[in-house]
Amino acid sequence: MTLYLDTSSIVKLYVDEAGTRLVRDLVASADVVATSVLAYAETRAALARLRRERLLSPSSFLAAKRQFERDWPHYLTVDVTDALSRAAGALAEKHGLRGFGSLHLATFLEILGRSDADDEVQFSSFDDRLNDAARTTG
Q1: pLDDT tens, 10-55?
Q2: Which of 80, 97, 100, 116 has the fewest CB within 10 Å, making it most exposed?
């Protein structure tokens, strides 16, 4: 199974919060974990925000960042191309998505289109609108 994680799901791998167990279980059962290359900056920004808001201690922040850096090379990442950006723009308009959410959906659809008919591809996000769009589109 190929599992696509948006940033809201990736963060749950490094910060213990609601949904963490679910995402960890999904990752454990996946053969491939995929995401957009934009998730790197988004995840680093999310961890930094949690640190600034004192929701992560300095040591927890460093540990989460270190583990994320170790894991990042193991994700299948898809670059944001002009074609992907244009597809994301159309998806944003159609489904009322924010920019990065639409890029995650377009990337998921790209992976879905590349996958073998026998390969299950799952989408993981904690954004209800994005999940609805993924369900209706993918």
Answers
A1: 999 999 999 999 999 999 999 999 999 999 999 999 999 999 999 9
A2: 116
How far is Cα 103 from Cα 66, in angstroms, rounded to an integer? Answer: 26
Q: Return the SS3 of 61.
A: helix
Q: How much is the pTM?
A: 0.94
Distances (CA, A) of 13 to 21, 84, 91, 121: 8, 26, 27, 19
Q: Which contacts (CB < 8 Å, 24+ apart) does range 111-115 have?
A: 111/2, 111/4, 111/34, 111/76, 111/78, 112/138, 115/2
Measured distance CA(28)–CA(3) in Å, rounded: 10
- Helix (H) / strand (E) element for 35: namely strand 32-36
pLDDT tens-digit profile of 70-94? 999 999 999 999 999 999 999 999 9
Distance CA 110, CA 88 (A): 11
Distance CA 128, CA 77 (A): 23
Which contacts qualify for 58-65: CB closer than 8 Å, 24 or more apart?
60/15, 64/14, 64/15, 65/14
CATH number for the segment(s) 2-137: 3.40.50.1010
